[in-house]
Design a protein that fits this description.
single chain; three-stranded parallel beta sheet; binds iron/sulfur cluster; 2 helices; 25% helix
Length: 76
């Protein structure tokens, strides 16, 4: 069991196709996902085309498992 004081946050920024990505840089390289990775407790951050799809949900699940995440932020 992981230490409850070990806060491991994953941030998922949704592009919503071009609805959000058309007006905001969501990317890991130069945008919001990259900015979030520098915040305290954040150990994983990425953007995705559409988080409310099965593919998006699978990404969240896989990332939680791979990075031992215990907090999730979805920016959508
Ligand atoms: S999760 Fe929200 S912001 Fe993302 S694709 Fe679905 S409706 Fe759009």
């Amino acid at each position: 069991m992981s230490d409850p004081n070990d806060i491991r946050i994953a941030v998922f920024v949704c592009r919503c196709g071009i609805n959000i990505a058309g007006v905001l840089d969501t990317s890991e390289e130069t945008g919001l996902a990259g900015f979030a990775l520098n915040l305290p407790g954040v150990v994983f951050s990425t953007d995705n085309l559409s988080l409310c799809t099965t593919t998006g949900a699978d990404l969240i699940k896989k990332s939680i498992e791979e990075h031992n995440i215990n907090r999730v932020v979805v920016a959508a």
